[in-house]
Write a structure and sequence with these properties.
The complex is a heterotetramer of chains A (about 290), B (about 375), C (about 325) and D (about 250). In chain C, the strands form 2 sheets. Chain C has a two-stranded antiparallel sheet with strand order 1-4. A two-stranded antiparallel ribbon of chain C has the order 2-3. Chain C has about 325 residues and is mainly alpha-helical. The radius of gyration of chain C is 22 Å and the shape is globular. Chain C is about 75% helix and about 0% strand. Chain C is built from 14 helices and 4 strands. By secondary structure, chain D is an alpha/beta fold. Chain D has a domain of about 170 residues: P-loop containing nucleotide triphosphate hydrolases (Rossmann fold, 3-Layer(aba) Sandwich). Chain D is about 35% helix and about 25% strand. Chain D contains 10 helices and 10 strands. In chain D, strand 9 and strand 10 form a beta hairpin. In chain D, helix 3 crosses helix 5 and helix 3 packs parallel to helix 6. Classes of the chains: A mainly alpha (about 290), B alpha/beta (about 375), C mainly alpha (about 325), D alpha/beta (about 250). At the A-C interface, helix 3, helix 4, helix 9 and helix 11 of A face helix 5, helix 11 and helix 13 of C.
Chain lengths: ~290, ~375, ~325, ~250
């Protein structure tokens, strides 16, 4: 029993990491039907931007700000203007393929211009453990979990309580109508890209001390987050959080009670089951299909 | 067509550079391994050329990326061999070595590689050479250490499920059998795995006398932290990837008490190795791992063998390297005395190391066999 | 299509085929290996093009089928069985698994379907890696023999290249036949408008499953050639990234165009090789090239040509109309 | 005369909304039956229920006396029931001829013969005849997507006739078609009806079209049948005038 508790706590901590990356997937999908296969790399990159700033002699806090801004410029504005805008009207697939190529490009660029080595990354959360229910839990993991929860609360508040949020929702649900009633659709879509870029930079800041700054660390992360987003429902922010936490826990339970060799299989089987039984995901809405 | 490569003219004219070809994992899963290997090679070549080269001729190397994929490795080795290099360097992944070794042997060109799987040098290939201990020689030392020094009767094995981890796990399981040591838990993990809670709780449940950890450096650091968190106090034994300086750096306190055998380490208490480490860090801005050393040594193996022959002769190279002993006193670049046997396996000093207060402490030096 | 245009097409076709047969005699072993790889990947991409490009069913599992074919070939030929037997087994196996994998397509569409096939892809990789008794696990299978064709051994690079090229030729002919047959028309109907197709008596359910099964079987065919080509296989090359690569080939070449996979595989296999002279930058440049191409033409390379042809035809048609109009006006 | 189509007490709900509420009528062989009613009265939903695109919540559909409720559209089509859609549904990337061959191919042979047999499934001649019949001759090789709206509408109708159906359900065939073409379309439908003894059910808003083409008319309102009768009777029916024509 105590064992199970350990697994649950640890799984939630890892799941929070997936969740925070998965949120961005759902945001981009909702507003612009973009499946971003480079999302993992999007999380990997800001840490390197911050490291680069620090190498240039800038203090850590300033490096964080520079990294965040650069990330919003590159992964938000640049990504949207240069890649998404020209391709959006040609359907989901070519854009998805382009993001795959983008993932390769980002990985290679970091490897080439920075290093193939894993670099340690300073943590803004103290590195120690604290005891919860008699378990040692790392403060870093708690920080990630807290951020994930804060992100979903913040986003929900933004979407439901503010006028900008309502405009964003309208844009997500029906851009044509939204445009007709005078919502600046383009600006709303841009805003989601900026929010995604901000989130990945924040995630990068929290996750990199655990995962290390390495050009390839986005691969595992991106795929896990992708699956989390699907399991939770591709079109709901809180679904992505639930999916992430669930995948983290299921992965741990699978390794403990099924087989370590097949631990990656259990989330996949879960995924297939959920899609066949509930294609809209655990918390997702059914998407409208036109005949 | 662009596919056609220009076949080199008279390959080894006096004074012309000696051509080497390196095929390594420069992208994909093995990029860290391959990049270290490549940097080691470049550093050694730079040094040698600065001192006038080998037999008065400069060394020149081409690097090709295998993308950590055996199929691509095969194509790139084929391309390298079509260019008729003096010696072929790499690859580092054992699978890629397996697919390329027959090609180099067929071409009669020696291949100095980074793979550590036991079987590579046991297939009777007369052109294949290691730069480090194969698992068939390092694992018995670890098993002996666990039996003699740690005196464990049951051991949990944690390994990363790729050819490196699987290979080590298979050899040591056999060795444990010889000593009558029980495998209490046999846990496969994934490369890039972040969460080891389930694995550690399984270790705890198995209550072994010791844990053998055979993972990559980053995952080693993560599992050490988790072992500490779940208060596992039995001895943690491993190889270079558990007790290297990098792991200590990443795992902090949690690395204390980890111990084991190290064949080749940039932390070895050998002056030449310390000097190498300094040069490497200065040139590339990071501390190399053992793959950097392996690449560096490969070039000095070529230098020593060629100077012994007194000529640049690709066909005779492999014969001359077999049975050769290279002394660090006469060739400082080789860092430690080393002997190559008829299979291309390596014989060298090894170290038993323990992490104490975040520092590697050499407990014992295992002598060279002959 | 005008007669002249058709004439030029035939000439171009003959030149390309002749080049593929003759030029390799002057290539070195590396060039032959790369070209063989291109032929093998083209076969796999043709299968995916059938499933995705013609029938409109997204699959992220084509790499897994290449893996199944490769393992069938490696295991059977290592045990002394002929490659042709492995080919038959691979086709049947991939066809059956593809058929089963098609069932979710009857329930879910588009990206959800892609997710199911993605999960399958990961599961297949785990089976390749973990079931060591069958696949030798992570160690892989080495020394895979190359076949003898009518008693003629194909161990050397050139003869084996002709095995790959010949297989590509046969697969191309069969695929050409298939897409020109009523089946091909039904596949297109399935992609463009399944509801209307159903109302025209087209059993969309059966055709969907067939599209999956046949496309997957071609993946298996590619696999049975891949194993003797590299002569060593392990699970890693057949992970999700191969499926994504194949998808990229289909889209970049032009999904739903017969020659799309040929060009797509050329980009994916040959372009990185051409860019290798840039050393560490080659994959970066490759990524940029793919992104640039897709931005310029999201319908792939053949999409550019298609667009050009349509434009020209529209221009010609409007010119024709203008002529007709003026001649009408000229008549008193 | 025998009934080709008999529907009895068809019901269809969407959530809490009842779209079709117990509709019954039958269609006699060789008849052209008009189905009219205000927008949203359930005409198209009824079509979809008859043709298996939707599963009715209750009731029965019979074709030639055989119960076919819940049959899949493709099976029904091969039994000789064909349809067109309210919105254009041709295959834009296929040529006009290919569209027609596609529409007929599943009525020939079996899966194997369709794979190994000739590319046109032996239908080129039939397709060309259909093309000529609908006066699309000069467009046979053009891709359907390049045709004008009216031409596509003709093609859409032509496709419904390729399999030699006994019963054709046409959903607003005249919508958006210009006058000249409308005349054409009407003449073609009447001719097919006369010469091939094909039976039609036509949903249409164009009253002139319905009244001049149909022998009988069913009027629907709010999911129910309001009236059935000849065009003259319908014109005179006060309930219909109130519910529909009056507005």
């Amino acid at each position: 029993m105590s064992n199970l508790l350990d697994l649950l706590i640890s799984g939630l901590a890892t799941g929070a990491i997936y969740a925070i990356v998965a949120v961005g997937f759902t945001l981009l999908w909702q507003t612009s039907q973009t499946i971003n296969f480079a999302q993992g790399e999007f999380v990997m990159l800001p840490a390197f931007l911050m490291l680069a700033a620090m190498h240039a002699g800038v203090p850590f806090w300033l490096a964080i700000i520079i990294g965040m801004l650069a990330s919003m410029l590159l992964l938000g504005l640049g990504f949207k203007l240069l890649l998404v805008d020209p391709m959006l009207r040609h359907g989901v697939l070519p854009l998805a393929i382009a993001t795959m190529a983008l993932a390769i490009g980002i990985k290679e660029a970091v490897k080439q211009f920075f290093s193939a080595e894993a670099s340690p990354f300073p943590s803004i959360v103290p590195a120690g453990d604290i005891a919860i229910l008699g378990r040692q839990v790392s403060v870093q993991s708690l920080g990630v979990l807290a951020l994930a929860i804060a992100a979903v609360i913040g986003l929900t508040a933004l979407l439901n309580r503010t006028s900008i949020g309502h405009q964003m929702q309208a844009t997500a649900q029906n851009p044509t109508v939204a445009r007709i009633i005078g919502i600046p659709v383009e600006r709303m879509i841009l805003l989601t890209f900026l929010i995604n870029a901000f989130l990945v930079a924040l995630a990068s800041l929290l996750i990199t001390p655990i995962y290390l700054a390495k050009f390839s660390s986005g691969e595992v992360l991106g795929q896990a987050a992708f699956i989390a987003a699907i399991v939770g429902g591709f079109n709901q922010v809180r679904g992505a959080i639930a999916g992430g936490l669930l995948i983290g826990v299921v992965d741990n339970l699978a390794a403990a009670y099924v087989s370590t060799q097949y631990r990656a299989a259990v989330p996949m089987i879960l995924l297939i089951g959920i899609i066949l039984l509930r294609p809209q995901g655990l918390l997702g809405r059914a998407e409208e299909r036109t005949v | 067509m662009l596919l056609a490569t220009v076949v080199a003219g008279p390959a080894f004219a006096q004074g012309a550079p000696i051509k080497l070809a390196n095929v390594a994992e420069l992208s994909g899963g093995g990029a860290t391994v391959g990049t270290n290997w490549k940097n080691g090679i470049d550093l050694a070549i730079e040094e040698i050329n600065a001192k006038g080269g080998v037999l008065g001729r400069k060394l020149e190397v081409t690097h090709a990326d295998s993308q950590s994929n055996p199929g691509v490795a095969r194509a790139q080795v084929q391309k390298a061999l079509d260019g008729e290099p003096y010696v072929l360097l790499g690859p580092g992944y054992s699978g890629s070595v397996k697919v390329t070794a027959p090609l180099a042997a067929e071409a009669g060109i020696a291949q100095i590689m980074g793979g550590e799987a036991a079987e590579l040098t046991q297939a009777g290939n007369k052109f294949l050479f290691r730069t480090s201990f194969g698992q068939q020689s390092s694992m018995p030392k670890v098993a002996k250490y666990i039996n003699d020094e740690v005196k464990a009767k049951s051991v949990a094995i944690v390994w990363v499920n790729n050819d490196f981890g699987r290979g080590g796990r298979d050899v040591i399981t056999r060795e444990f059998g010889k000593y009558g040591i029980k495998v209490a838990a046999d846990l496969s993990t994934e490369a890039g795995q972040a969460d080891f809670a389930a694995d550690v709780s399984k270790i705890k449940a198995a209550a072994p006398d010791a844990v053998f950890v055979y993972l990559n450096e980053e995952e080693s650091a993560r599992i050490l932290k988790e072992l500490k968190r779940q208060a596992v106090t039995v001895p943690l034994v491993g190889e270079t990837t558990l007790i290297g300086q990098k792991v200590v750096e990443l795992a902090g306190d949690a690395a204390n008490g980890a111990r084991g055998h190290v064949g080749l380490t940039t932390d070895a208490p050998v002056d030449l190795i310390k000097a190498f480490r300094e040069k490497f860090s200065k040139k590339y801005n990071y501390v190399p791992d053992h793959n950097g050393l392996k690449g560096y040594l490969a070039i000095y193996m070529i230098k020593a063998t060629t100077e012994k022959m007194g000529k640049v002769d690709s066909k005779a190279f492999a014969d001359n390297l077999h049975g050769l002993t290279i002394k660090a006193a006469s060739e400082p670049g080789i860092l430690m005395d080393v002997t190559f046997d008829a299979n291309g396996d390596i014989d060298r000093q090894g170290f038993l190391v323990e992490i104490v207060d975040g520092k590697q402490v050499i407990k014992k030096v295992l002598p060279k066999l002959n | 299509m005008s007669l002249v245009q058709r004439y030029w097409r035939i000439v171009l076709g003959i030149v390309v085929i002749a080049a593929l047969i003759v030029a390799p005699m002057y290539l070195n072993r590396y060039g032959l290996f790369i070209l063989s790889q291109w032929a093998v990947m083209t076969i796999a991409a043709m299968g995916l093009n059938l499933t995705l490009g013609y029938a409109g069913q997204v699959s992220l599992a084509q790499g897994a089928f290449v893996g199944i074919g490769a393992y069938a070939a490696a295991i059977m030929t290592s045990n002394g069985m002929p490659l042709i037997a492995a080919l038959v087994v691979a086709i049947i196996l991939c066809f059956a698994i593809g058929w089963i994998l098609g069932y979710p397509a009857l329930r879910v569409q588009h990206h959800y379907l892609a997710f199911v096939t993605l999960a399958f892809s990961t599961l297949a990789f785990l089976v390749f890696r973990n079931e060591s008794w069958l696949t030798n696990g992570i160690y892989g299978i080495s020394n895979i023999p190359r076949p003898s064709i009518f008693g003629y051994p194909t161990n050397r690079p050139l003869p084996f290249y002709y095995v790959c090229l010949g297989s590509l030729g046969l697969v191309s002919l069969a695929t050409w036949w298939l897409i020109r047959s009523p089946w091909g028309r039904a596949f297109v109907a399935l992609r463009e408008n399944p509801v209307r197709a159903l109302s025209l008596g087209i059993d969309t359910r059966r055709y969907t499953l067939m599209a999956f099964a046949i496309g997957s079987a071609l993946g298996g065919v590619a696999g049975t050639l891949y194993a003797p080509l590299t002569q060593y296989i392990d699970p890693v090359p057949f992970n999700l990234s191969l499926s994504l690569d194949l998808l990229m080939m289909v889209i970049v070449g032009g999904a739903g165009f017969f020659f799309g996979p040929f060009l797509g595989a050329m980009i994916a296999v040959l372009l990185p090789e051409w860019l290798r002279f840039t050393q560490g930058y080659y994959l970066m440049l490759y990524a940029v090239a793919v992104i640039g191409l897709l931005i310029y033409s999201p319908t792939g390379i053949l999409g550019i040509i298609d667009r050009y042809l349509i434009e020209r035809r529209t221009r010609a048609a409007s010119a024709l109309r203008a002529v007709a109009k003026s001649s009408l006006e000229a008549t008193p | 005369m025998t009934a080709v189509l008999e529907i009895s007490d068809i019901k269809k709900n969407f959530g809490g909304i009842t779209a079709v509420d117990g509709v019954s009528f039958d269609v006699q062989e060789g008849e052209i039956l008009g189905l009219i009613g205000p927008n949203g009265c359930g005409k198209s939903t009824l079509f979809n229920c008859i043709l298996g695109q939707l599963k009715p919540n209750g009731g029965e559909v019979k074709v030639d006396g055989r119960v076919v409720t819940g049959f899949r559209p493709s099976d029904l089509n091969r039994l000789g029931v064909s349809r067109t859609f309210q919105l254009l549904q041709v295959f834009p990337k296929l040529s006009v001829r290919e569209n027609l061959i596609l529409a007929g191919q599943e009525h020939q042979g079996n899966m194997l013969s369709r794979l190994l047999g000739p590319s046109d499934a032996g239908l080129s001649k039939a397709a060309d005849q259909m093309i000529d019949f609908f006066k699309l001759g000069h467009l046979a090789g053009e891709s359907a997507g390049g045709l004008s709206y009216g031409q596509q509408k003709l093609l859409d109708a032509a496709m419904a006739f390729m399999g030699g159906p006994r019963l054709v359900l046409l959903d607003e065939p005249a919508g958006g078609v210009n006058l000249t073409m409308l005349g054409d379309l009407k003449a073609r439908l009447a001719e097919i009806n006369r010469e091939r003894r094909a039976t039609f059910v036509v949903i249409e808003h164009n009253m002139e079209f319905v009244m001049s083409l149909c022998s009988r008319v069913v009027v629907m309102a709010e999911g129910k049948v309001l009236a059935i009768g000849t065009p003259a009777e319908i014109r005179a029916n006060t309930a219909v005038i109130d519910a529909y024509l009056g507005h």
